Amino acid sequence: MKIIDCTLRDGGYYNAWDFSTDLIHQYLDAMVAVGVDVVELGFRTLKNQGFLGPCAFTTDEFIRSLTIPTGLTVGVMVNGNELVGSEAPLEEVLDRLFPNVAASSPVDVVRFACHIHEFEKALPAVNWLKERGYQVGFNLMQVSDRTQDEVRALARLARSYPMDVLYFADSMGSMNPDQATQIIRWFRSEWKGAMGIHTHDNLGLALSNTLRALDEGVTWVDSTVTGMGRGPGNARTEELAIEIAERRGKPANMVPL
After folding, report:
1. 3-state secondary structure string, the chain?
2. pTM confidence score
3. Fewest 10 Å CB contacts: which of 51, 150, 211, 241?
4. Model confidence over 135-166: pLDDT tens digits?
């Protein structure tokens, strides 16, 4: 099981991704204490619209200015439209987004948030990044209203690429645990690699859906501190960390958080 805490990325919608260095260091120490595996420190984008803080871009230079505690893996997220909505070739966009190979970068994990219509065109990014040593995941959005055939078709596309994890998001926060189970099983009929889930709390079911997903064999799960994120937010790290600690049989120190 891997917990990805994406507070600085998803929570950045609250404050234009302008988190202070002191706060980020307190946050990083708290993440180690509660047993988080990966911290998604922000977006990486080439689009500079308005006054955005450093976690909107999360450059290698910015991450190197931080003290990352031992044991934490660093991730960033890229919006799929960054790749398929550009006039520049995909490889050129990726080269600008990730000018360093993984061995020379503080980033280990790259995830793409992708709408269904962007997925096929964005998938070649997996090969490009894997060749440079990164772990790569795709987070498919708005799958809750898709049919079984549509979900299986997406999974067949994914299995042609060496991605490390295939995520799906409960984008509208409309799923219940039984619906989450159904979608996982549809994906599983075609996709045999690691799976992840990103839940939203519109119905107060973000934690319940995440725990059901773990019961169904999903091994990557997302959360944020206090659930902060767009709309009603996400599964809360404060709650999920306790549940994961119990499943791992390893206590979590909640005091710093």
Report:
1. CEEEECHHHHHHHCCCCCCCHHHHHHHHHHHHHHCCCEEEEEECCCCCCCCCCHHHCCCHHHHHCCCCCCCCEEEEEEECHHHHCCCCCHHHHHHHHCCCCHHHCCCCEEEEEECHHHHHHHCHHHHHHHHCCCEEEEEECCCCCCCHHHHHHHHHHHCCCCCCEEEEECCCCCCCHHHHHHHHHHHHCCCCCEEEEECECCCCCHHHHHHHHHHCCCCEEEEEHHHCCCCCCECEHHHHHHHHHHHHCCCCCCCCC
2. 0.95
3. 51
4. 999 999 989 889 999 999 999 999 999 999 99
